[in-house]
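Hey, I'm writing a tutorial for new members on how sequence and structure tokens pair up, and I'd like a real worked example in the thread rather than a made-up one. If someone can provide the structure for the chain below, I'll link this post from the tutorial.
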Amino acid sequence: MEKSERRPVTLAASLAGLRLIGAGAVLGLALAVPASPALADPPRPPATTQDAVDLDES
């Protein structure tokens, strides 16, 4: 079996590749972690309007 030729890789190309791998890992983790549930508004007490008070008095 014949060895394939090895070409020298520049430091800039190597670092660029590592940055792409790192960015992919961060993106993968961000997509894998479930999103936190949205905070719902607290329940509101029943509204008492002037109309409701007038109907109760009748």
